[in-house]
Amino acid sequence: MSPTRAPSGVWPASPARQSSKHTRRRPIVPAHVTVSQFPDRPALVSAVAEQFADLLRGIQADPTGGIHNDGVARVVLTGGTAGIELLSAMATLKDIDFNRVEFFFGDERNVSATHPDSNEGQARAALLSKVNVSAERIHGWGLDGGDMSDQVREYASTVAQHAPRGFDLHLLGMGGEGHINSLFPHTDAVREDTRTTLAVTDSPKPPAERATLTLPAVRSAERVWLLVAGAEKAEAASHVAHGAPADEWPAAGAQGRAETVLFVSDDAASML
């Protein structure tokens, strides 16, 4: 499917939401993706921070806001350069009640949260340690370098308990080969169609051991926003925009129930 560019560098938005019986498990079809293009990564991060803040403000302004109708946003954070820069930008905002956000993590390396490679640790340093948010709102994977089975199983229960209707927003970075979270091309993890969490022990990108949300979990999100910058990601960005098979380009399988937005810098948009 070839999307058509709309004015001002923005491509068409996703179609109207499907009926409720289809919202949890959408068929794998070419996605309708909104492509929002920016000159460079700083401009991209600034724009996403503004939209992220507007989303949180809107949910919190209504006592029945958000997909759980309780005025509390459920958000999945992402690591990577753009993802962490986004969190740093959010930390400067003074009118967001971060204690009315449930924070989740799309994936985690099999290290403790205090390790410098930890996504949770980086998120805490960039945002969560700088704002007023209770520990009960931050849902980390609890990994420690050992066997991941129990933590992965518990994380599925955590998601089911605190986000039973899914997420208001799932933020995603993307690798040059199209991986998202710890879902890599041509792996059993990207083909998982039932479980919401998995332990990955053979990641092609070091470290080999990781825990991850799966595509069914990603697709439970009302909104999926991909943050993509860098010329090395141009081919993958093109495949996402045109709905390639998720087995080959995992990011193409990341579809929000209401919208899927590819925020892309000029260098990553060269093949769109």
UniProtKB/TrEMBL annotation:
Keyword rRNA processing: no
UniProt keyword terms in alphabetical order: Hydrolase
Record EC number: 3.1.1.31
Record flagged with keyword Hydrolase: yes
Class of this enzyme: hydrolase
Region (Disordered): 1-27
Domain named Glucosamine/galactosamine-6-phosphate isomerase: residues: 41-260
Record field: catalytic activity: 6-phospho-D-glucono-1,5-lactone + H2O = 6-phospho-D-gluconate + H(+)
GO molecular function, one term: 6-phosphogluconolactonase activity
Source domain of life: Bacteria
InterPro entries the record matches: 6-phosphogluconolactonase_DevB, 6PGL, Glc/Gal-6P_isomerase, NagB/RpiA_transferase-like
UniProt pathway: Carbohydrate degradation; pentose phosphate pathway; D-ribulose 5-phosphate from D-glucose 6-phosphate (oxidative stage): step 2/3
Role: Hydrolysis of 6-phosphogluconolactone to 6-phosphogluconate.
Family statement drawn from the similarity comment of this UniProt entry: Belongs to the glucosamine/galactosamine-6-phosphate isomerase family. 6-phosphogluconolactonase subfamily.
Entry protein name: 6-phosphogluconolactonase
Native organism: Corynebacterium godavarianum
